Amino acid sequence: MSVATDTRPVEATPVRAVDPRVRVTARGVLRSEWSKLWSLRSTWITLGIGLLFLLGFGTIAALRYESMLGSAQMDPDFADSTAYSLALFGVPFSLIALGVLGVLTASGEYSSGMIRSTLAAVPRRLPVLWTKAAVYGVLAFVAATAGAFIGFLISSGVLDGTPAELALSADGVVRGLLGTGVYLGLVGVIGVALGTLLRSTAGGISALVGTFMLVPGLMSLLPQAWRDDLNPYLPSSAGDAMTAMQHSAGTLSAGAGLAVLLGWTVLALGGAAYRLMRSDA
Amino acid sequence: MIEARQLTKRYGDKTAVDGVSFTVRPGAVTGFLGPNGAGKSTTMRMIIGLDAPTSGTVTVNGRPYARHAAPLHEVGALLEARSIHPGRSAFDHLMAVAHTHGIPRRRVSDVIEQTGLQSVARKRAGAFSLGMGQRLGIAAALLGDPQTVMLDEPVNGLDPEGVLWIRTLLTGLAAEGRTVFISSHLMSEMALVADHLIVVGRGRVLADTTVQELVLQAGGDTVVVASADPAELRRLLAGPGVEITGRPGSEQLSVTGLSAREIGLVAATHGVALFELTAKTVSLEEAFMELTRESVEYHSATVPGRAA
């Protein structure tokens, strides 16, 4: 058996001077998160599903309304519809898809172990969370806004000449469609925060679905007075206020809805940041 | 250069790393050796800031890892646990890591070539064999042209060709003046590449030494000699630095501090007949087992006895 005998010189000899251009920068972290997002097939699939829900369900709803017009029985759910409300029929479904993708961008790092590579490269950690949330939030916003506008144009085309007819220039339409984009963008950010906070895909998706789908239903268990006080401040109600074309009684204004949802987003991000900094990766 | 001072990590009641202090110097391969559960991986995770120490400090080139402007240029690490998303291709994985530091695409191609991954660089990492995954992890470790290369169990899952490749790579990196720190639970593997050894068991440093010293510490080389008159032979061989043991009534003696040749010559000069003269080298494996015997966490039902 060969035996190594000497310990070589002990003084530190740098391999070469650190190239001053090679360092962690905000731009570098941004490019990294961007490339991580697009180099996974799940991003393309889930984003496609989110858009499909938004465009597809809106179009189906518009076609259904149009087909019922001639017949005697108009479904009461559809009676007061407008091209706007029909176009946004798919929002709750799209919300889940985009929220799930937000969860996946963070929880996928933990389930695969990629987080160790990520945090070894950016050991200060927080820039990763902020960048991931911003990159995905903006992407979800752009996708949802584009989907909402295209969906509305399809619906208003289908419903041209019907009682539900509505032009893009009608009062509140553009603001509401933008509100929809912002709502889904923030849901994406909340998804990233939940994924980072819970470090688990199943947990993150459960929390997301629970928050936006189950909690509103549970409100009916509360006494009426409490319900009226609390209901407008739920994330889902705040989001509904943002997407509403017109302000209705018992809900927040679009601006107040945005403020409330931003509050929830900041809360979720705060929890995620705390866990990211305090827990071992 | 890695410097750990009183580094401690506790998980509830369990102390994984217990007041460990050591220095890993540049220009040499330092082996980090210990049985499973000795705290090697936890120590390595603390070095690059993935786990926070309960107490104590560890610095890399004079600073905590996270305080460096270009951490990947300071330490390139391969961890034992998987650190790659299986849905991403090798190239995309390396590129995503490279972007954080503004490392150019050319460098990504370089490390892909250096680790022999050219043909599979565009394939999803999830489809990689253990050995290819290990090569990809090493490619990521080399990406930032790091001053310190730290690899946790690098030969795990590699075929003989891969093992040889790692050995050549490690000695090459050390010869370039880099700090090379590798963990293993296999002494035999370490003996081939490491200049220096840090042996740990149950979260403590058991030895911070060279390979040669470790062997000496474990009893060094022994000569077994059997003769017609062991008492007489014992008297003849006795001297400074010579240690002789033997059971009463047995004609066999174990001698350290003299070579078989010397013993043979002494016996011939004094006319003592020898029946056996065997040089027994303490293998590194035995030295390691002896050192860590007390600290092995999970003994098998039959504890392997000491052969020497």
Automatic annotation (TrEMBL), chain A:
GO terms for cellular component: plasma membrane. One of its GO terms (molecular function) is ABC-type transporter activity. It comes from the Bacteria. The chain crosses the membrane at residues 44-63, 83-106, 133-154, 174-198, 205-226, 252-274. Keywords: Membrane, Transmembrane, Transmembrane helix. Signal peptide: none annotated. This is ABC-type transport system involved in multi-copper enzyme maturation permease subunit. It comes from Pseudosporangium ferrugineum.
From TrEMBL, chain B:
GO terms for molecular function: ATP binding; ATP hydrolysis activity. The keyword Glycoprotein does not apply. Belongs to the ABC transporter superfamily. Keywords: ATP-binding, Nucleotide-binding, Transport. PROSITE patterns: ABC_TRANSPORTER_2. It comes from Pseudosporangium ferrugineum. It comes from the Bacteria. This is ABC-2 type transport system ATP-binding protein. Residues 2-227 form the ABC transporter domain. It holds the Pfam family ABC_tran. Gene3D superfamilies: P-loop containing nucleotide triphosphate hydrolases.
